Amino acid sequence: MKVSLALSGGAARGAFHLGAIEAMQKLGISIEAISGTSIGSVIAVGFACGLSPRSMLDIFKSKEFQKLISFNYFQRGLLRINENAPILKAFAPIENLEDLSIPTFLTCTDLLSGEIVRFNRGKTIPLAIASSALIPLFRPIHYENYLLIDGGFMDNLPISPLEDFSYPIVSIDLHPLLPSSERNFFTLYKRSLFLSFIASSQAQKAKSALYMTSSKLPSFGLFGFSEMDECFKLGYDTAHEKALTFLSQKMI
Q1: 51: buried, middle or exposed (CB in 10 Å: 19+, 13-18, 0-12)?
Q2: Using omega within 30 degrees of 0 as the cis cutoff, is the peptide bond preceding 158 cis?
Q3: Which of 201, 238, 248, 252 is 20 to 30 A distant from 108 in Cα terms?
Q4: According to DSSP H, which parts of the chain are helical?
Q5: What is the pLDDT of residue 73?
Q6: What's the pLDDT tens digit per position in 105-161?
């Protein structure tokens, strides 16, 4: 079966995306177009450059990858990513999005216009970094006439670019909406911010032929590398079960 794939943001939880992609590949599901926000953009680029899910996981866990991030001395962001690091060239050796193996869409937010900007042409590495520029942790990225930040601020489950294709849309969400029993001021404030952040995802997921997430995902930190193997396995197991059910329904 051929599908289009939308990948949400979620930082280190992106290992779940990788496990899910591996499960789909083993079931014979072919990804013909891919759209991502934040870490979803990074993984979309790696996949479209021909990297396997396991290879991407190894790169994410490597010391070289973790050294990409350096202190930015509070110059419009606490941290910055070295765009010229050799590990990025290994991860994304194809310079331009339009030359990737499948149609690939990266979602960013333009601070100047306040609008969503989606790229399927342009410089691969700078745009993947821009889609992941979660302010105030990371500095905004100047690109052409834009000042770009993390696409998740306005669309954390970027399904829209895939609607022009004829394939069923599979979406993977790293921020499941779960009930909350918290009642104190700080937890309620955190909850309100979370709800505003994922509002677009809730509207988008209805457009998916297959929507995948896990109630276990919130137990994984967003900025840690120690749990990536476990998160990968969760993604694999979740996608294997859901995709098998999806395929069986399509065969009836």
Answers
A1: buried
A2: no
A3: 238
A4: 14-26, 39-48, 53-61, 63-66, 86-91, 124-131, 185-204, 228-251
A5: 46
A6: 999 999 999 999 999 999 999 999 999 988 878 889 999 999 999 998 899 999 999
pLDDT band for position 248 (50/70/90)? confident
- The strand pairing partners of 30, in sequence order, are 2
- Produce one character per residue of 101-134: b if its CB has 16 or more CB atoms within 10 Å, e if not: eebbbbbbbbbeeeebbbbeeebbbbbbbbbbbb
From CA 40, how far away is CA 174, in angstroms rounded? 9
- Cα–Cα dist 39/17, whole Å: 9
Taking alpha carbons only, the member of 238, 235, 241 closest to residue 54 is 235
pTM of the model: 0.90
For the chain, counts of helices (H) and of strands (E): 8, 10
pLDDT band at residue 182 using 50, 70 and 90 as cut-offs = low
Query: Which conformational region is residue 114 in: left (phi greater than 0), alpha (psi within -120 to 50 degrees), or beta?
Result: left
CA 88/CA 84 separation, integer angstroms: 7
